[in-house]
Amino acid sequence: MSPSRTDPAPTAPPGSPASPASPAELFFVFNKLALQGFGGVLAVTQRELVERRHWLTRDQFVETLALAQVLPGPNVVNLSLMLGDRFFGLRGAMAALAGMLLVPLVIVLALTVAYAEFSRIPVVSGALRGMGAVAAGLVIATGIRLATTLRSNRLGLPLASGIATLTFVLIAWLRWPLVGVILGLGSLAVAIAWQRWR
Amino acid sequence: MSALLPPALGAADLLGLFGHFLMLSLLAVGGAITTAPGMNRYVVVEHQWITDAAFSTSVALAQAAPGPNVLFVAVIGWNVAGPLGALATMTGTLLPSTVLTLYATRWGAARRDTRGMRAFTTGLTPLTIGLLMATGWVLAQPYVRDGLRSTGAIALIAFSVAVMLRTRLSPMWLVAVGAIIGALGGV
After folding, report:
1. Do A172 and B137 make contact, defined as CB atoms within 8 angstroms?
2. H or E element at residue A171
3. Nearest-CA neighbor of A38 among A96, A122, A109, A108?
4. How many CB pairs under 8 A join A and B?
5. Is the separation of the CB atoms in B117 and B108 below 8 Å?
6. Is position B187 within any domain?
7. Do B164 and A138 touch (CB under 8 A)?
8. Who among A51, A161, A193 is closest to B123 (CB)?
9. B38 in any annotated domain
10. Which of A147, B157, B159, B169 could be A137's S-S partner, Cβ–Cβ 3.0 to 4.6 Å?
């Protein structure tokens, strides 16, 4: 899976039309993503890597995200590791991880130190509210766009969208614990998919 | 919040902090934010290193700043014990999940075309989309529930969704628009 060091071209995931040229490019692209990600990085990651750079198809993105969500740890960090590893092995994974975390870490710690000053200004707290509302909209839009991949899901559109809706209701409205939903509903969905894949 | 002069913490306490976040990392299925209650219990309730308000502010600050939301872990660590605290909480949070993710990814990639892996990703994809929508919903709640300004917030959220779906504009510009509208008191 990880390309040999003499391999001139990175191994692109099958079916994706483009790929990064080097771990350094991975670092800079992920750094750019992270710096655009106010209130979360997922929306901008999907847009940049899938819609703009075509490093992955929507299906590949949602599959990778599914794994990143099931594995323990921060979703976006897991996603960076998985995508980096996919293109350049361990070096790629570390480059993507560093790109995602290093500069934002410095910024957020600087903000922490300065927070006591900022928070007294009402314009600043208002701006933070506006950014928070937009961040919520970005995540919803990403969900809607990725929902188009359900059309090609082997479970069939009615069942797949039913499971997606049920997940939403259980987590958002009923506030069930995530682990239970993934283990319960997730196992059921995987079992049905297993049956369909004869 | 004691941001400028975080309290000094002994080596034993720092190690305990690191160890606790190490353990929480492996429980963080569905994102680091799902373990926030566990972190709160440890640094606020058990050890009283920071107040409950400082804890909540740490999370809000990290969400408003650019970058992954997991950085709230570093802010908590910083508020508990300065740079060493941030180092302890961040490495504790990232180390186990990073190693596990790399192994699981390679294990899965080698079996990408087997029936088991296909069933796994096919079955989990709908859950992933449901989870995304749920996250958006939960993030929107504080703004939508705010009686006085909820109309503006709902309009801004709907506007963001529409622009994201219909244009190729970078989300950064939308966030900037949100900041301006919010600063003017519209949300």
Report:
1. yes
2. none
3. A108
4. 382
5. yes
6. no
7. yes
8. A193
9. yes
10. B157
Round to whole Å and give the CA distance between B168 and B66.
20
Q: What is the pLDDT of residues B57-73, one digit of tens each?
A: 787 778 778 889 899 89
CA torsion B15-B88-B31-B68 (nearest 10°) is: 170
And the tokens for A99? Answer: 């790109």
Take residue B97 and report the two structure tokens written for it. Answer: 């999940």
For residue A143, what are its two tokens? 């969900």
Query: What stretches in chain A show pLDDT beneath 50?
Result: 1-12
Helix (H, G, I), strand (E, B) or coil at A172: helix
Query: Can you give the length of chain B in residues?
Result: 187
pTM attached to this predicted model: 0.79
> Model confidence over A21-48: pLDDT tens digits?
999 999 999 999 999 887 678 888 999 9
Determine, yes or no, domain membership for B173.
no
Q: Chain A contacts of B31, Cβ < 8 Å?
A: 69, 74-75
| A103: enclosing H helix or E strand | helix A75-118
CA distance B98 to B100: 5
Q: Which pLDDT belongs to residue B110? A: 86
**Whole-number Å distance between alpha carbons of B81 and B15:** 12
Give how far the C-alpha of residue B163 lies from the chain's centroid of Cα atoms, to the nearest Å: 24
Backbone angles phi, psi at A185, to 5 degrees: -65, -40
Spatial distance between the Cα atoms of B130 and A26, rounded to a whole number of angstroms: 29
Q: Residue A166: list chain B partners with CB under 8 A.
A: 130
Phi-psi region of A10 (alpha: psi -120 to 50; beta: other; left: phi over 0): beta
Measured CA to CA, the distance from residue B178 to residue B72 in angstroms comes to 22
The distance from CA A28 to its chain's CA centroid, rounded to whole angstroms, is: 17
Name the domain count of chain B: 1
| Tokens representing residue B123 in the block | 């079955």
Q: Is the ipTM of this complex over 0.85?
A: no
Domain that holds residue B79: 1-110
Instruction: Note whether residue B169 is domain-resident.
Output: no
The whole-angstrom separation of Cα A66 and Cα A31 is 23
Residue B49 has which token pair?
């290193």
What is d(CA B46, CA B57) in angstroms, rounded to the nearest whole number? 19
Q: How far is CA B71 from the centre of its chain?
A: 7
pLDDT at residue A5 in the model: 39
